[in-house]
Amino acid sequence: MKLDTLCVQAGYEPKNGDPRVVPIAQSTTFVYDSADTMGKLFDLEEDGFFYTRLGNPTLDAVEKKIAALEGGVGAMLTSSGQAASLISITNICKTGDHVIASAAIYGGTFNLFNKTLRELGIAFDFVEPDISAEDLKSKFLSNTKAVFVETLTNPSLDVVDLEMFAHAAHEHRCPLIVDNTFATPVNCRPFEWGADIVVHSTSKYMDGHAVALGGCVVDSGSFDWTQGDYPMLSTPDETYHGIVYTEQFGKAAYIVKARTHLMRDFGTQASPQNAFLLNLGLETLHLRMRRHCDNAQKVAEFLEKHEKVDWVNYPGLPSNKYYPLAQKYMKNGTCGVISVGVKGGKDGAVRFMESLKLAKIVIHVADARTCVLHPASTTHRQLSDAQLVDAGVAPNMVRLSVGIEDADDIIADIAQALEKV
Prior knowledge:
Layout: H1 3-9, H2 35-42, H3 57-70, E1 74-78, H4 81-90, E2 98-102, H5 107-119, E3 123-127, H6 133-137, E4 144-150, H7 162-171, E5 176-179, H8 184-187, E6 197-201, E7 215-219, H9 231-234, H10 245-249, H11 253-266, H12 272-283, H13 285-304, E8 309-313, H14 323-329, E9 337-342, H15 345-355, E10 360-361, E11 371-373, H16 385-390, E12 397-401, H17 407-418
Helix pairs in contact: 1-3, 3-12, 15-17
């Protein structure tokens, strides 16, 4: 099936007499007739649902849909995008390991890596998203276990050269982890360009209505975990009576371990209710992304010509330095988010935002309604001045998330607000 059809149909096939819509299995636990069966479930010898922290029919259907959309062997829903990023790293990294990450990533992810995971003993080197292949290869160490980037950086809207990063990672026997939140699989499928693991904040475009927090980890099944130093996947796990994930679960070793080990211990599971709401969003994802991109293109073209605007960063503009990469990786469009520099510095940016009427100032991004945010004083306020520069966050930057309203109404609102600057 084509991707548009997968958005609607994948993950759930009702049989005779079943509900047409994915039902909400609002139960923490599931009944079995024998202790022997339950024991085999705990030992990973049989498939089945027994406790929602490890699996649930509603979550399972949505996970299968997202895996199909990304082209992976399996997926796991989490309570938030932050939890998905956490698990993507800790599933293969331990104290003493090293990770290379793009410096231009979401502020919450940067803080997770730069503070919390550093304090747990995992070292990080942050590199420019447009680093050269030669310079990137020089960053790898003997203990490097992963490379982490965003398809479209949040909020600077840089486009990462996925093939280059994948090639460098694989040359050093490391997986490439890609946060594909902004592009979504509708506009980019990182596995097709060499990525090994994909993460999402499903709270954004996938949900699309700002009603359900969530995240997702997707496994391509393409990385050979026996080729590098990944003992947690290729040696016995004594907490499951010595099973070896790569031997017992093959291509799905990574995602099975993420669920049976880290979800078991971290407990960052999504709720069935939120999974149900997420599925409703996924059914229209292909329709909404086209409208988001069409509207954002019109808004970006308007802003680019406005006298009150210093600069516009939107990869859909031919003048943008990332336009060639955007055309390569996201030929059908990028996303609905634009970063724009308003004249007058931070004061000008704040005056512009506070003068908007249709668009609202909110911490969220990438849903049906147009909204704005000042990243330097909110999502990235914990970064130093130097780190803000590395992340591409200027004092006058406004992150504009273009919704699916009428484009003329959005532009009219922006125009009247800019008159106040």
